[in-house]
Structure formats: C-alpha cells, structure tokens
Amino acid sequence: MAKNKELIILTEGAIVTAAAQVLNFVPHSVGISSIELVYGLIPMAIFALRRGLKAGLMAGLVWGLLDMLLRGISSGSVLNPLQGFIEYPIAFAAIGLIGLGSVHVKKVILDKKNSLGPILLFCTIGFGAKYFFHFIAGGIFWASFAPKTMNPWIYSLVINGGSFIANMIMMFVLVVALHKVFEKLIIVNK
What we know:
Elements: H1 2-24, H2 41-51, H3 53-75, H4 81-94, H5 102-110, H6 116-141, H7 152-177, H8 179-186
Transmembrane segments: 7-26, 32-49, 56-73, 85-105, 117-141, 153-178
Protein name: Proton-coupled thiamine transporter
GO cellular component, one term: plasma membrane
C-alpha cells in the first residue's frame, strides 16, 4: 500500500510540474517588463499543501530544472552555471517550503475553520523564499542591467519584490475567489 501511495504522489507531482511549466509559456509580464506573474506557482502551492514539504521541494526542483532547460538557457536568462543553479533549481525548489504548512492547513480545513490565513501565510513563506534567491542573484549577477543611477541591490529588490507582491496578490485573489475549491484540492481523499 505504501508503494502505491508513493506512486500516486509521484504521478501527481509529475502532472503538477508539467502544468506549472505549461503555464510558464503564457505571457506574464506586468508593467515593468521584468515583473512577472508566475501562474505555475498556483498548482505548485496546492500540491505542496496537499502532499507536504518533501513532495513540494522535489516538484519545485524538477520544475526549476525543466524551466531552465526549456526557457532559461534559450532566452539568455542563464548567465553562468552558479547563477542558473541559484535562480532555477534552488529558487524553484524553495516554493516547496509551502509544504511546511500542509498538516496545519489540512487540520484547519477539517476543523471547518477559515483556512485563508494559513494558506496565505505558507504561500508567503514559499514565494518569499523563491524571490529571495532571485533577489540575491539579481544583486550579484544582474547588476550590470540596473540603471546607471540605481544601486543594483535596490534594482533587484524592486524587480524581485515587485514580482513577489504581484504573485501574492494573484494568490490572494484566487484563494478568496476559489476558497472552497482550494480546500477540496488540498484534502487528500483516502
């Protein structure tokens, strides 16, 4: 029975990772061209809350590798191996930190309490970790792209902080609008 459960989790992870990658091909720039909505964060957040930390980290890692191979290298977004490693496998795996809240969120849902706050809290942790790694890479590796009059760290904070805020707003709107659906997606039926 345990092997069957592992296979189900692995299959779900593969499907969610593929869906997240497909969603990355949908145009998603907001305002300043470097601020992006990352639609794949939504299925990844649901998966991490549904299946927990380990599954969330692994799915994020695979998504990061896939995105680096399919979009990052061909678009010139990988400047060198270290930067590519930080901004793709590491940053994307960090999304899995949402899974830290899996048990708590499920308990809140099963107790028929409002799960909006816990879901958003743990999404903030996962999204924040992802954009923290992008911020570090931005300050170090993308510094030459900052406007000449702006400190590269401030530029990285504006771009990556803007992306973080835009994605949190997107998540908030979806969780509020689809709250009951999110609950049904997070609870695993035996």
